[in-house]
Specification:
With 252 residues, the chain is α/β, with parallel strands linked by helices. It contains twelve helices and eleven strands. α9 links the parallel β9 and β10. α1 packs antiparallel against α2, α4 packs across α5 and α6 packs parallel to α11. The chain is globular.
């Protein structure tokens, strides 16, 4: 059950919130139609995190309108993915977002203290994979996770990865990000005793087919415990890793 719903029920139990006020909080309009978007105001109640704004394809004015609606709905922290630098500049004129150009991510509000059960390790095959890795890292951090970055530890120099064996062994979830032939995920999957989320990237020469080669390699991994998200989907990997890293916390 999402944290906010639990908090409402605990307050009713403690007598600090009336049943009528609790019903009002739970029954408030689940979404608000602002014409070009139907902003989901119940996402946090259902899933424990507010709606994420996907910035690609949206005008700055549309992003600002969605942010206005979320802030009016009492959201104090909002994540915007695939946000261009130009659009971020326009949004900043209205909302004090922090912008991370490598990841193309904007965040409204302060990042929370980590409250997951362990550390999410994010490993990349090469430096060219860092933009996707940073999208994953910032998503996971935004959702309340401790994150460790292991960048440029690809299989072309296996000793670089092996020098971080302790980090890999102590992780609660690992996100393995690689382009080219995507071999990193299988190697990490063969070393780790935790779930591994593989992210193929569009990095590579012509026959990599913009990440399809890495995607197929990861889908065919012989290592147990490796799951795969879409090409360049750092956000999806970071979000899923956070859900795994909070399972024990949610059960309490």
């Amino acid at each position: 059950m999402p944290k906010d719903t639990k908090q409402i029920l605990k307050e009713v139990q403690a007598g600090t919130l009336s049943v009528e006020d609790a019903l009002l909080a739970l029954k408030k309009e689940p979404f608000l139609d602002i014409g070009y978007a139907k902003v989901d105001l119940h996402r946090r109640t259902r899933q424990g995190a507010p709606e994420i704004i996907y910035g690609a394809g949206k005008s700055p004015e549309q992003i600002i309108g969605i942010l206005n609606t979320m802030v009016e709905g009492k959201e104090d922290r909002v994540l915007i993915t695939r946000l261009s630098e130009e659009a971020a500049g326009e949004v900043k004129k209205v909302h004090p977002i922090s912008y991370y150009p490598d990841a193309r991510v904007g965040i409204l509000g302060a990042l929370p203290e980590p409250d997951g059960i362990g550390t999410i390790v994010i490993a990349t095959g090469g430096t060219s994979d860092i933009p996707v890795a940073e999208e994953a890292a910032l998503t996971a951090t935004y959702l309340g996770n401790q994150v460790a970055r292991l960048y440029d530890v690809g299989v072309a120099g296996l000793h670089r990865l092996l020098s971080h064996t302790e980090d890999i062994m102590n992780a609660s979830v690992i996100i393995a990000i690689a382009g080219m032939e995507g071999a990193l995920a299988s190697v990490v999957g063969g070393m780790a005793d935790c779930p591994v989320i593989a992210v193929p990237t569009s990095v590579g020469y012509g026959a990599s087919f913009h990440g399809i080669s890495a995607l197929l390699s990861m889908l065919n991994s012989c290592a147990s415990g490796v799951t795969v998200v879409n090409i360049d989907n750092g956000f999806g990997a970071g979000y899923t890793a956070s859900m795994i890293n909070h399972m024990e916390v949610r059960s309490k």
